[in-house]
Specification:
The strands form 2 sheets. The protein has a 6-stranded antiparallel β-sheet. It is built from 3 helices and 10 strands; from the N terminus they run H-E-E-H-E-E-E-E-E-E-E-E-H. It has one domain (about 30-190): Jelly Rolls (Sandwich), CATH 2.60.120. With about 220 residues, it is of the alpha+beta class.
């Protein structure tokens, strides 16, 4: 194999490794952020957290289908947070592994419940032993006059303080079993969310060497002509 081909293959392999490294770091860390499991047979249903993939709550979780109030942000189902009257609008939470000091991005879709005026979404982020409403109210809106769901996406960057992080959502309005729809929750990022400078040099080095070798070959051919 000639020198030019060796240099090119080295650069190509390094580039593919860099892409793979970044892709793994940016994979979604949440489970069932689209609330598609369990699948509803009717337009809505209440479930214990033991029956729901990924999510925990001391109260019943309410899933709704697109046929009830309108399209989901993704898939065909979403969650209503104020699911039970008299439960204090408890958090629904999910815990996942993180790297201490690494940066992550939470992304989710919010919609007011059509026909309901008070829809207030509160978000909490913290470690297992220190969970609190670190972010407070993230989204709110009135569903009065809405004929169907109206989704808006929000993002929030945070730095992990522990090897596990817990994220929670809660309806902060009246405890009346009405309001605040949530869908398409995801978390991406981590220590390897962007290639390290050394990785970029690994890619750039062989490619730069190939370019220099080609320039030398052109000069040599011009000198012989």
């Amino acid at each position: 194999m000639d020198r030019a081909r060796k240099i090119f293959l080295a650069g190509a392999v390094a580039f593919l490794l860099c892409l793979s490294y970044t892709g793994l770091a940016n994979a979604d860390l949440m489970q069932a952020g689209g609330f598609e499991n369990p699948s509803l047979s009717g337009s809505w249903g209440l479930f214990n957290s033991s029956s729901v993939t990924g999510w925990d709550s001391p109260n019943l979780l309410e899933f709704q289908k697109s046929t009830l109030y309108g399209p989901a942000a993704e898939g065909s189902q979403y969650m209503e947070l104020d699911s039970n009257r008299g439960d204090g609008n408890q958090f629904v939470t999910q815990t996942f592994s993180t790297s201490i000091g690494a940066r992550y991005t939470l992304r989710f879709a919010f919609s007011p419940r059509p026909g309901h005026g008070e829809n207030i979404l509160e978000v909490g982020i913290g470690g297992l032993g220190d969970f609190s409403l670190l972010q407070g109210i993230m989204a709110q809106g009135s569903g009065v006059g809405l004929r169907q769901t109206a989704w808006t996406y929000y993002t929030l960057d945070f730095v992990a303080t522990g090897s596990q992080t817990r994220i929670g959502f809660r309806d902060a309005g009246r405890d009346d079993s009405l309001g605040t729809l949530l869908d398409d929750v995801s978390v991406s990022g981590g220590a390897a969310s962007a290639p390290e400078p050394a990785t970029l040099l690994l890619v750039a080095g062989p490619l730069a060497g190939l370019a220099a070798w080609r320039r030398r070959r052109r000069r040599q051919k011009a000198a012989r002509a």
